[in-house]
Amino acid sequence: MQPQTPKKVVLAYSGGLDTSVILRWIVDTYGAEVVAFTADIGQGEEVVEAKEKALKTGAVAAYAVDLRLEFVRDFVFPVLRSGALYEGYYLLGTSFARPLIAQKMVEIAEREGADAVAHGATGKGNDQVRFELSAYALKPDVRVIAPWREWDLRGREDCVRYAREYGIPVGVTKEKPYSMDANLYHISFEGGILEDPWAAPPTDMWQLTTDLQSAPDTPETVEIDFEAGNPVAIGGERLEPVALLERVNALGGKHGIGRVDIVENRFVGMKSRGCYETPGGTLLFHAHKAVESLTLDRQVMQLRDELMPKYAGMVYNGFWFAPERVALQGLIDDIQKPVTGTARLELYKGNVTITGRRSPNSFYRQDVVTFEEDAVYNQADADGFIKLNALRLRIAAQLANQLETDKDTPPLKIPQYSE
What we know:
By secondary structure, the protein is α/β, with parallel strands linked by helices. It has helices spanning about 15-30, 45-55, 70-80, 95-110, 125-140, 155-165, 240-255, 280-295, 300-315, 325-335, 365-370, 380-405; strands spanning about 10, 35-40, 60-65, 115-120, 145, 180, 185-190, 220-225, 230-235, 235-240, 260-265, 270-275, 340-350, 350-360. The longest helix has 25 residues, at about 380-405.
């Protein structure tokens, strides 16, 4: 049974070539009305211009929504509290931006009475999964249109030809030899010349970070304050989430901090090479770890660290609105309640060095850890502690020695501690 033809479609629209062609293609292919939705998450593009272009291209309505606060408060900060890295390097900046866009797209679909949503992600990448899993989680009966999986256009040249045929402005800027996606947290680069994992990234590719050769020759010190796991102040100045992220981006970028070049495993089953710039996020990640080192119980921290690869995989693979991610976030946020304090960082030539940390909730006790005389710790207690932990090791060693020498030797004797 063929699905019913959609009557109204909400399209995640950037104003670029692909989504402009998609807008027109949906109108021509399905005869549906298209509502364009452009999310401002700090990508630096002119969202107002995108709205105007959408209307000229055939949209019956267009939304340009400033989501920067929601992005930082409800997506950047929760992931920061988790301490998550995907495959040891990636701070997930694109991964958790897609669920926010999908969430607002579904809200607009409800408001407009639309029966479908559409996106411009290709059939090879992760973004199609992230958009669609989020959309289905929030609106189970929604129909998703993914033109790159449906149409016969095969690349940029086909899209340019289609755009010119329908009078869609193409622009005259020279195409970069890679694709780029930006938001307030980071910029990602992939494709084109970067598809060769041996090829060095072009020196002029990076947008947010200074080359190390040009970075300041003098280190800079910065203090970052946290409350319940969230950054709240830079250098003692309290800032709202968006302003705070902009401030740390500028600090990190100035010193060439936050570049990552990795080969990662996409959810759809292939490896891909990605380059990422996350200057502010890198500072916050290290500062957050420094405050946690004082304020989290050892076993709690180890439990969190064991769960973080799973959390990172959930976010990377598009399961932001899945019950397991939501449940795990609840545990993380409970763990983060005592993570209040200040970290001092030294920034220099791409490096972040922790030079101090303090907290009113610190587990650190100088009177306990000191090598000087103290009245709170009996060093003789360590003897029994060590011998209890060594018991299984001593038995294993004795057993190994017995098997190697003589099977007829007497049974093992448990080590006696009255030696």
